[in-house]
Amino acid sequence: MEEERRETAENATVTGEPEKCNTVTFVGADGMEQSFPLDFLLERGAIVANKVNGEDILGVMGAVNQLWVPGLPAKYFVRDIREIRFTNEEVPPVIGPFVDDGHDYTNRPNVAAKAEYVGRVGEPMEFSGWAHDFDKRIIAVEFSLDNGGHWTRYDLGDTTPERWVSWTFAWTPDEPGAYQMKVRSVNEDGDASPVAAVHTFEVL
Ligand SMILES: Nc1nc2c(c(=O)[nH]1)N[C@H]1C(S)=C(S)[C@@H](COP(=O)(O)O)O[C@H]1N2
Ligand SMILES: [Mo]
Question: Where does the record place the Oxidoreductase molybdopterin-binding domain (predicted)?
Fold first, then answer.
């Protein structure tokens, strides 16, 4: 069987036998290699990006191209791809599941929160942050002012897994004192962040 070999616009070399392929391997200019099952890349709608919002990614991200797979963490996104190998492996690579292994995928669904450190009685305070959960949608953000005793849930509209949720929340204190706002996100399975984001502040 003859190998197919061609040059892409970015001068990456593509090798393999397309009709017998179950595995795709991306090789970066620095030697980084990452393999995926072909089916997985097709299902996810993987792309090799060379532009972001119409601009060359070289100027934006400092690489000539970068793999992007919806729902995957960035560690899989090979930068400066120089070679793409299409092969047929006896044991195709396995990706995920993205469970907390003590190093990666901790605190799913994830959330962050920030606000001013000093508020005033009767004046709205704005809390803001982001939430995301890799390949799962974020459906709500929850807030607690009593150390997690009670949570007030705000449902979100149309969210997708691949776009982070950027949220804002206004709250007006009516008593002075020391406060802690706890925030957690909720994913499409109804699971809330195991560890809440905490913002400690004072109201004068
Ligand atoms: N060629 C190459 N690609 C790479 C890496 C690398 O070391 N070499 N690091 C990966 C990791 S760990 C991350 S988090 C992302 C970072 O991509 P960014 O700099 O575009 O955010 O690139 C990934 N792609
Ligand atoms: Mo990373």
Answer: 19-91
